[in-house]
Amino acid sequence: MKSMSTQIERRFEISSSVVGIIDGSFEIGNLMVMILVSYLGSKVHRPKVIAAGCLIMSFGTFLSVMPHFLMGRYNYERIPLTEDNSSTSLSACSLPLPLHHPTLDAMEMTRELKNSGCEKAASSYLWIFVLMGNLLRGIGEAPIMPLGVSYVDDFAKEENSAFYIGTIRSCGMVGPTLGFLLGAFCANLWVDVGVVDLESLTINPKDTRWVGAWWLGLVICGAVSFLASLPFWFLPYSLPKEGEERNLKKLSESSVTIQEDHCKIELPSQPQLKFSEAVKDFLPTLKKLLGNPVFLVYLFLTILQYNSMVGLITFETKFMEQQFNVSVSRAIFLIGVILLPITILGMFLGGFIIKKFKLHITGMAKFGCATFIAAYLLNLLYFTCDCEVLQVAGLTVSYSGVKQSSFPKNNLIASCNSDCSCVLNQWDPVCGDNGITYMTACFAGCKSSIGTGKNMVFHNCSCVQAEGLESGNFSAVLGQCQRESCTKTFPYFLALLSTCALILALGGTPTYMIMFRSVSPDLKSFAVGIDALCGRILGGLPAPIYFGALIDQTCLKWGTKRCGGSGSCRVYDTKAFRNVYLGLIAGLRAGCCFLYITLFILIIKRFQQESNELIDLKSTEVSSRKGSTSGSKNETFPCAKALEANEETCL
Q1: Residue 525 near residue 41, CB atoms below 8 Å
Q2: Quick count: other Cβ atoms within 10 Å of Cβ 512?
Q3: Across the strands, what pairs with 555?
Q4: pLDDT tens-digit profile of 264-298?
Q5: Does the predicted model carry a pTM greater than 0.70?
Q6: Secondary structure (DSSP) of 306-324
Q7: Which value, in Å, is the radius of gyration of the alpha carbons in the chain?
Q8: Which residues form the Major facilitator superfamily (MFS) profile domain (predicted)?
C-alpha cells in the first residue's frame, strides 16, 4: 500500500490530503480495537483471534480492489496536437484564434469538459472503497503482533525469548520486502494492462503522470492473507513452558512407585472471561502500567520513532525520484532488495547478540542507546547529498537559460511561443536539445513532429532555437531532461542509508525487549498494545499528514486533474524538499537520542537498586542460616549420642 499510494492518487484524481486520509484509515482501524484486543489478550484464545484477523484483512484487501473493475479506463493529461499542412506531421504550436488569450483557452476547456459529462466523473467517490478496505485491514491486523508476541514470550524460556521475538520481527520484515518488490513490478505495468495497446502510450514509468497496476498486488496480498489464517485455527489455547516437556519425560521414566496421576501436568484450561470484570479492572491496570517510569519513557521514545520511521518510509520513494532522478518503480525495487533485507539482518543479529551474551535489561539499554546515537550521527551526513533543481523554462530558469529562484505564471509565455496559444496549466514535458525541460511542446514552440507514441520527436522548436544554438533542427523529445550529476551521487546515498538502517535495526530488538523486562508478566500483552496504539495514533496517523503538508510547500508546479483543479505535484524545489524531509527526520531523532539517554539512566537506577536489595536479602538469609545451623548443631549432638546408645528417636 505504501508503494502504491502515488498510483492511487493519480488514478482517482484525488488530492494529497485525501490520500493521507486513506493511508491513515489503516491506523484508525487499528485504534478501534487495539486496546480491547491487547487488554483481553491473556483471557482469550489468541491463535484463533489472530486467524480471524487475517480473514478480515483478506476481505478488506478485496474490497479495496473493487473500484478498478467499476471504473473506466485511465486517461492521462496530454496536450492536443493539430495536423500540419502535411498529413504526416502534427504540430504542438497552433495559431491563436482572434481575440483569444491563452488563459481563456483553459477556461473554455474546463467548460467543454463539464458539458461532456466530466462533472459526473469528478464527483465519483469510488475511492471510499479503498478507504473502507484499508480500515478493515487495520482492524484485522490489530491482534497479530500483540497477541502473537505475548503468546511466544509466555511459553518460551527467558533466555530464548529475545531470540525468538527477534526472529519473528525479522521474518515479519520479509512481508514488506516482498510487498515492495511486488509494488515495483506492478508500478511498471500500465493500470489497464491487457486492455490498452501499450504502443499507443506516450509516457513511460518515469513520467509523473504514469499509473501502475495498483490493484494487481492487492489481489495477490488478499489471497495470501486468507491462506495465512488457516494454520492459526489449529494452534492450542496454551503451550507447555519450554523445558517442562523434558522434565516431564525424565520424571515419568525415573518414577517406579509413583502413580501416573501424580506425574501428569495438565495444561491450563481457558478461563471463563467475564466482560464486566474485565472492563472494571481496565483503568486500574492502565494506571499501574503508566505509573511505571521506565515504560512511560519507552512509550514517548516509541512515539518519536514511529513519527520518523513512518515519515521516512511514506516519502522515501518520492524523495529518491525528485532528488536523484530515479523512477518510482526503481526506488521501490531498491528499498525491497537492499534496504529491507539489511534491516531484517540487523534485527536478527540484535536478538542473537542478546542470546549470545545473555544481556540483562541494563545491557540491552546500553546497547540500544549506543547504536541509535551512532546511527543519528551518520544520519546527519544525508545533508551532503545535494542535487540541482530541474531546469524548467519559465519555472526555474528563464527561456534564455538564466537560473532564478522563482517565476510568476506570466513568465511561462515568452516571445518564442507567444503565437502558439498554449494552455498555462498543462504538464506534458519535453526535453530540448539545449538540456532545458519545457512544460509542453507548445511552450517549446514546436511546429512539427515525426513518429508516434513514446518515439515521437518534435522539430522546429522556436524556444530551443532561442537558446542560441548555432546549428541543428532545434528538436525536443518527450519527457523531462535527465540530471546526470544527481544520478551519480545516488549510490553514495544508498550506501549511507543502508548503513544507518543496519545500525538502527541492531538496537531495535534489544530496545523492544526492554518493554517486556520492565513490566510484570500479566501486563505484557497490554503493554504491547498500548505501545502499538500510542505509536500509531501519535505517530503513524499524523506523520504522513504533516510530512506531506510541509513537502507540498516545496512544490513548484502542480498538475491538473482531467476535470479541472490541482492534482499531484509535478516538479519540486529539490533543495527545499531535501531540507524539509531530512530536517524533520533529524529533529525527531534528536528527541529520540535524549529519551534513549533518559531511559538508560532510569534503568540503571531502578535495577541497580533492585540488585542491591537482592544482595542485602541474600546476605540476611545467609547470616540467619549460619545462626540456625550453629544452634541446630548444639541441639543435635546430644541427640546423636542418644541414638547411638539407645537407638531411640530424638523428639
Answers
A1: yes
A2: 23
A3: 572
A4: 444 445 455 555 665 667 788 888 888 999 999 99
A5: yes
A6: HHHHHHHHHHHHHHHHHHH
A7: 33
A8: 1-608
